[in-house]
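User: Show me a protein chain along with its predicted structure.
Assistant: Here is one chain, sequence first, then structure tokens.
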Amino acid sequence: MPPLLILIDQQQGIRAPHLGPRNHPDAERCMADLLAAWRQARAPLLHVRHLSRNPSSVFWPGQPGVEFQPALAPLPGEPVFDKQVPDAFANSGLERWLHQRGIASLLICGVASENSVEATARSAGNLDFTTWVAEDACYTFAKRDFAGQPRSAEEVHAMAMANLHGEYATVTSSAAMLERLRATGSPC
């Protein structure tokens, strides 16, 4: 069975201009390709939605930013897990839901690489799920490091992927996962 595809925080608010420069301008296309392939294969998938506890956030419930991006929105019947912190496993019931369905492997994509993607992949690895991250189907934004130095979105993303690869997850590409799915019926 293919791993369960998890799309993290593909909401309209993530396109807010104040978030600044980002990497992987084609990440949504890569996510859409994965989503279409998983749907066609009738493989397991779910969507994660962030509902902020901060009223000034673009993800505050009731704001337009909470809505899914149309191209990546869940279809009727596709599971949606809500979270209030970066880690999709925290207080969401996700771990129990996966175990109840016998799901042992995950393919994670979404935003932000060093935030919700990394937090969720770390927890998945710690909980003994076999975990992949499609790095080109993830993205993030430029930010300052702890010392105050500006870091490009590419640098922030690369460090997040380095933090995950080999310890919590296998970092791969969407193309590699799609090719394996087409060739074998499962990308793993």
